[in-house]
Amino acid sequence: MIDIALLRKDPQRFKNAAQNKGTNPDTIDAVLRFDEERRELIQKIEELRKKRNELTQQVKSSRDQYNTNDLIEQVREIKKKLDDIEPRLRMVDNNLRDLAVRIPNPPLPDVKVGKNDTENEILRTWGEPQKFDFKPRDHLELGEMHDIIDVKRASKVSGARFYYLKGDGALLEWALLQFAIEILTKEGFIPVIPPVLIKKSSMKAMGYLEHGGEEDMFVLDKDGLVLVGTSEQSIGPMHMNEVFDKKELPRRYFGYSACFRREAGSYGKDTRGIIRVHQFNKVEMFSFTTPEEGDKEHEYFLSLEEKLLQALEIPYQVVKMCSGDLGAPAARKYDLEAWIPTQEKYRELTSTSTTTDFQSRRLHIKYRDGKMVDYVHMLNGTAFSMGRPIVAILENFQEKDGSVRIPKVLQKWMGKDRIYRP
């Protein structure tokens, strides 16, 4: 949640930020009204309680029965007033909280103002897009040719947008996992296998339920649980209501888990193959750090994502999201988009975001530096969202005969340098 003190000081900044993110800025005026009323009610309650305590002491010390009865009546009148005001305060406080969590995290100053993904900035490209002297096959045709991707049987079992990875397909995912583990453990990240079901309150604290976010989630209302759409959603709340010592930061994790998404609003898009599916596995990086190191940590996460794709020799471009393409929690976000030959365009493969102190305020995660206590900054970044790098490998490394070269960095785990047609 945003800092209410900052909102009072500069409401226009937050209105502009909300508008630039495509959300309704009118919420901010409502929050300020409730905030003002809340402070007025608290002041009244404190004054009444103080007066009640004074009168109670006078009752205890009074020896005049007439005076005592008068004092007791005044105490009763105050109690009636408190009985009227205190419920109002609870209602105002609840309304304030419900509205305040809908205010999005303001984009950082270096983020371009834009309406949607058409206005994102391409920062740089790496590698040359593949050019073939034959008509390239798409990843699904190659996957079915080698019997390593099976969407037809998955559809029988689970429905549309599920898939089986088999044989070399499964080995390729595990090779990517081993490669990520090797790189990230050397970088000092702590490996974690997180739960994939979390409380709705935890998901709300991460800032993903507002603005229609719940529509893309699998929610178990009976149990009050949500299936995670990415490992970060269960890693972030791991330290809720805790205080780090500054020397413990940055605390970096990488999680590996299954992820689940309804893909709401994507009907008709990428229905072929395994680019946009309901279930997939993912290696996700996460960091808790100090505010002054937040921007540096974000660039570090981006450099790791580039390092992984460069090692796979997959051509990509780095894209910086404009304000209108940022989710509510993100203050800045980069996407790495891999070249997909059969689509003749770059497609998102990984991303990294900083949420500054937006999530840590909601989760009450702080750090201590001497006597000073402040909120940490929280960042996330994808190492591999397994299906998509497999798509990129199959399409970029295919040969005319249908075989697929395996990137050199993965060959020691695959035990081969090529996937041959059966």
UniProtKB/TrEMBL annotation:
Pathway: Aminoacyl-tRNA biosynthesis; selenocysteinyl-tRNA(Sec) biosynthesis; L-seryl-tRNA(Sec) from L-serine and tRNA(Sec): step 1/1
Keywords: Aminoacyl-tRNA synthetase, ATP-binding, Coiled coil, Cytoplasm, Ligase, Nucleotide-binding, Protein biosynthesis
Quaternary structure note: Homodimer. The tRNA molecule binds across the dimer.
Enzyme superclass (EC): ligase
Matching NCBIfam families: serS (TIGR00414)
Gene Ontology terms describing biological process: selenocysteine biosynthetic process; seryl-tRNA aminoacylation
EC code: 6.1.1.11
PROSITE patterns: AA_TRNA_LIGASE_II
Similarity comment: Belongs to the class-II aminoacyl-tRNA synthetase family. Type-1 seryl-tRNA synthetase subfamily.
Function: Catalyzes the attachment of serine to tRNA(Ser). Is also able to aminoacylate tRNA(Sec) with serine, to form the misacylated tRNA L-seryl-tRNA(Sec), which will be further converted into selenocysteinyl-tRNA(Sec).
Catalyzed reactions per annotation: tRNA(Ser) + L-serine + ATP = L-seryl-tRNA(Ser) + AMP + diphosphate + H(+); tRNA(Sec) + L-serine + ATP = L-seryl-tRNA(Sec) + AMP + diphosphate + H(+)
UniProt binding sites for L-serine: 230-232, 261, 284, 380, 382
Residue positions binding ATP: 261-263, 277-280, 348-351
Site (Important for serine binding): 382
The Aminoacyl-transfer RNA synthetases class-II family profile domain, residue ranges: 138-407
Any one GO molecular-function label of the UniProt entry: serine-tRNA ligase activity
Organism of provenance: Candidatus Roizmanbacteria bacterium GW2011_GWB1_40_7
Descriptive protein name: Serine--tRNA ligase
GO CC terms: cytoplasm
Domain notes per entry: Consists of two distinct domains, a catalytic core and a N-terminal extension that is involved in tRNA binding.
Coiled coil: 31-65
Gene3D superfamilies (alphabetical): Bira Bifunctional Protein, Domain 2, Serine-tRNA synthetase, tRNA binding domain
Entry's localization field: Cytoplasm
InterPro entries: aa-tRNA-synt_IIb, aa-tRNA-synth_II, aa-tRNA-synth_II/BPL/LPL, Ser-tRNA-ligase_type_1, Ser-tRNA-synth_1_N, SerRS_1_N_sf, SerRS_core, tRNA-bd_arm
